[in-house]
Design a protein that fits this description.
By secondary structure, this protein is α+β, with helices and mostly antiparallel strands. It contains two helices and three strands. It has helices spanning about 10-40, 75-105, and strands spanning about 40-45, 50-55, 60-65. It has a three-stranded antiparallel sheet with strand order 1-2-3. The chain is rod-shaped, with a radius of gyration of 24 Å. It starts with 10 loop residues before the first helix and ends in an 11-residue tail after the last helix.
Length: about 120
């Protein structure tokens, strides 16, 4: 007797269950990687190392280190520029690490090239 409706061998429902399990596993892995990234620190220097800024993966500044020779009351603008440059570089490093982590996670899904329709 022929089956009415449904799919031969139950292929689609079985595949759907596997797909859901894989998605849940990937979600847990992404959450773990995101937490690990948020706890990681990124440091960048400017002015030949005279200014160093450290940020977390959550993009929070945790440390600013200034060499004594860069602190010149007559040239505050230079110090401001160096702090800004170091902070921006540290934030760029955090963004790059986040993008790399996401690329590794989604690399096999084919999500990078747009939608197929």
């Amino acid at each position: 007797m022929a089956k009415r409706g449904g799919f031969p061998g139950g292929g689609i429902p079985g595949n759907m269950n596997n797909l859901m399990k894989q998605a849940q596993r990937m979600q847990r892995q992404m959450e773990e990687n995101q937490k690990e990234l948020e706890e990681k620190e990124f440091s960048a220097k400017a002015g030949g190392g005279a200014v160093e800024v450290t940020v977390t993966g959550k993009k929070e500044i945790t440390k600013v280190k200034l060499s004594q020779e860069v602190v010149d009351p007559d040239d505050v603008e230079m110090l401001e520029d160096l702090v800004m440059a170091a902070a921006n570089e540290a934030l760029r490093m955090a963004d790059e690490a986040n993008a790399e982590m996401m690329s590794k996670m989604t690399g096999g899904l084919g999500l990078g090239g747009g939608l197929p329709f």
